[in-house]
Write a structure and sequence with these properties.
Beta-Lactamase; alpha+beta; single chain; 6-stranded antiparallel sheet; 7 helices; 41% strand; 3 domains
Length: 278
């Protein structure tokens, strides 16, 4: 497995380091994700020589690897290189499906300025259809909550408000043609690490309109259907290839990343999810 593409916010050393890497089955984080078929979060980068090479580059202190399957075929491993240097709160959570109990159990998380949420979350479980993780599991589709603080469906609304979180995205992780995990992404009201999302439901080879969520500007957009969304061209690349795609652009001294992910269920390409990472 070799690096196919990436976005590094102008960190040339980091980009060069990643470009030199390749992984066998079970080797490094990408290889371990390949072998397990599940999302893995590594916080101790010294546990792997490949991950240790990233330590200190660009302020990276944790790495999350996410597998993307088309049926039983692994098509890619997407790696998020994480840093807690930012001032805004945010977190990523992994929830593991326990089919025998019909619940999701906390499988780890990366929390920035969310200590109370970090302490509480491992103590709870989500039945199918409950909370953002449970709704994602039940539907098998990406779910977006524009404001988790005021949603009756978000069990930890009070905690999220106290931690300064607002936006939530649930991402289903498929394996063996069923949802085996849910990845949750939660960002702050301002300076969120996730600036927005576009969700497409392809039909008969056509992309269709996007359900647009945009929190990057002064006027937020929550669930507006738009035929010509900003990330449509990138989503069309995913529709054609059924593989993830990422682009990076520099605007006003800031790097903006757009990441488009294909979500396959047992019947084929179910959604294209585009994440805006300002």
């Amino acid at each position: 497995m070799a690096v196919g593409m990436g976005a590094y916010r102008g960190h040339t050393e980091l980009a060069a380091a990643r470009g030199r890497l390749a992984f066998s089955y079970g080797e490094g984080l990408p290889g371990a994700v390949w072998a397990s078929g599940k999302v893995l979060l590594w916080k101790d980068l010294a546990t792997s020589l490949a991950a240790a090479e990233l330590s200190g580059l660009g302020g990276i202190d944790a790495v999350l690897g996410c597998p993307l399957f088309d049926g039983r075929r692994l098509i890619a491993v997407v790696c998020f290189l994480l840093s807690n240097r930012g001032e805004a709160p945010g977190c990523l959570e992994v929830w593991d499906a326990l089919d025998e109990l019909d619940v999701l159990r906390h499988g780890g998380g990366y929390y920035v300025h969310c200590a109370e949420l970090e302490r509480f979350s491992p103590l709870i479980q989500f039945p199918r259809g409950t909370g953002l993780p449970g709704l994602t599991w039940l539907s098998g589709e990406a779910q977006v909550m524009a404001d988790v603080r005021s949603s009756n469906a978000f069990v930890r609304a009070g905690l999220a408000a106290r931690c300064g979180l607002k936006h939530g995205i649930g991402l289903p992780i498929y394996g063996e043609r069923k949802v085996v995990q849910v990845l949750g992404l939660f960002g702050a009201e301002q300076h969120s690490f996730v600036g927005g999302a576009e969700i497409y439901h392809p039909r008969a080879g056509e992309l269709g309109a996007a359900m647009l969520f945009d929190w990057s500007g002064p006027g937020s957009i929550a669930g507006e259907s738009l035929a010509d969304a900003p990330g449509r061209r990138l989503a069309e690349r995913v529709l054609a290839s059924h593989c993830p795609a990422v682009v990076e652009a520099k605007r006003g001294g800031r790097y903006e990343i757009s990441l488009a992910l294909p979500l396959h269920d047992r019947k084929g390409l179910k959604q294209v999810l585009l994440l805006s990472l300002p």
